[in-house]
Amino acid sequence: MEFNFKSNSPYSYMKYDGYMGQYTKNKEYYIVPKLENSFGIRNMYDIFGKIESALVDLLNMGRICMEPNVDEHTKFVCALMFVEQYGLLGFMVDAPENPNFLLSDEIILKDNNYVSKCKEIRPEKYFELFFPFATGNEMSYTVTKGQVVIKSNSDLQNMMKQTTINNQLIYSSFYCEKLDWIIDYAKDMYSIFKKFNDLLHNNLVGDDIDEARKVVNSYVCSGVPYKINIYGNNPEINWKPGCLKQALDMAFGFMICNDKNPIKICKHCGKVFYAKNPKAEYDTTQCRNQANVYKSRNKNKDEK
Ligand SMILES: [Zn+2]
Predict the structure, then answer these.
(1) Is the pLDDT of residue 1 over 50?
(2) Same domain, 37 and 64
(3) Is 94 among the domain residues?
(4) What is the per-residue burial (b if ≥16 Cβ within 10 Å, else e) of 25-47?
């Protein structure tokens, strides 16, 4: 099966030119858009054009952050590099069970939501979680006649009025995400992928097999909406993920359950990579050459 992902428009995802880390008064560390230049500050791009590299980068972020003794600075640099490339993940629209979450009296959150341990949360509290640095004039919302309206004194914000409420939220220049949410998500995805990869290559024995199956089987992606486009005789599925995280979750399932297993772990350095050639075992020629050197050294040792 080939991946023929189509998004709702070729320019459906937004990211800012730069991001930075910022502490709240309660010492919570967030990644926020950096608004240095007023020109060309916000870019739109088609996530499905780079979904393979986005997924590989996410998994490698998880891999690095799972190493023992990894420090906070390394985690920050990993997340920043990812976000500068692809934008924030959009946890705000992914975590609630209901897509029109700001209209509910209590927002019900998915079980593995990353943003809160609570199962239910008041909409005002939930809003604050993602806009901790914005003043009421900069970013607030009202509900009028069953409709959410975003209020802002920022021109950059008001330029998005034509788009959906969810996009006005997660692509806002005031929207930000905690470093820990991003890292935890990347780590979870890598652990699942690593277990999956071990099962696939028979790297496990005994109880570890059951344990690994349990981890992989517990993964749930709660569904990405799609529509069908048929213009000529070729129907196409037009996927409509609500945010970057949903696009990654969707691609993850399709790619790891693909016969060709395009997402692999380098046999020499352990990095996750996307293999165009299904037989590839190493991410770079350097890794392949080095592995061959070790192999022949070991062979020589055996012969002595
Ligand atoms: Zn390698």
Answers:
(1) no
(2) yes
(3) no
(4) eeeeebbbbbbeeeeeebeebbb
Distance (Å, whole) CA 13 – CA 86 = 8
- b/e string for 175-203 if b means 16 or more Cβ within 10 A? bbbbbebbbbbbbbbbbbbbbbbbbeeee
Question: If DSSP codes are grouped into helix, strand and coil, which group holds residue 222?
Answer: coil
Cα of 287 from ligand 1 centre, angstroms: 5
217-275 per-position pLDDT tens digit: 999 887 788 888 888 888 888 888 999 999 999 999 999 988 888 999 999 999 999 99
DSSP state letters, 62-93: HHHHTSTT--HHHHHHHHHHHHHHH----HHH
Q: Where are the alpha helices (DSSP H) in 71-217?
A: 72-86, 91-94, 123-130, 155-158, 165-170, 179-200, 207-217
The answer on 153 and 299 residing in a single domain is no
Give the whole-angstrom CA distance, residue 293 versus residue 201: 23
For residue 53, the CA-to-ligand 1 centroid distance in Å is 16
Question: Does residue 141 sit in helix, strand or coil?
Answer: strand
CA of 57 to the centre of ligand 1 (A): 14
Together in a domain, 5 and 78: yes
Secondary structure element (H or E) that encloses residue 108, with its range = strand 107-108
* Dist. CA 206 → ligand 1 center (Å): 28
**Arithmetic mean of pLDDT, 177-182:** 98
Instruction: Count Cβ neighbours within 10 Å for each residue of 250-278 and write b for 16 or more, e otherwise.
Output: bbbeebbeeeeebbbbbebeebbbbbeee
d(CA 142, CA 226): 29
